[in-house]
Design brief:
Strand content: under 5%
Distance between the termini: 54 Å
Helix content: 25-40%
Number of domains: 1
Structural class: mainly alpha
Radius of gyration: 21 Å
Order of helices and strands: HHH
Largest sheet: none
């Protein structure tokens, strides 16, 4: 796909909102704007390959802190599991 660069003038409030939403969704600002343009019907939707379950949640990996490091392997954590 050949790409071009677009420069626009937007308010500080708009750029702040754009940055915040892109960061919340873990995408670049450019990706966020391209997706918005597709949703608005300005550009055709590109065919996306299906995502695996891992692809959909990989941004969550490693965000929990303070838990036991052997949770998945230590038998004492399995007592009563599934009952």
């Amino acid at each position: 796909m050949q790409t071009e660069t677009l420069s626009i003038r937007i308010s500080k409030a708009e750029i702040t909102a754009l940055r915040r939403r892109a960061r919340q969704e873990h995408v670049s600002q450019g990706s966020f704007v391209r997706r918005a343009l597709r949703a608005y019907g300005v550009t055709p939707a590109a065919a996306k390959p299906p995502q695996s379950g891992y692809d959909r949640i990989k941004h969550l990996a490693g965000i929990c802190r303070g838990g036991p490091k052997d949770l998945a392997t230590n038998p004492k954590y399995f007592e009563g599991f599934g009952q």
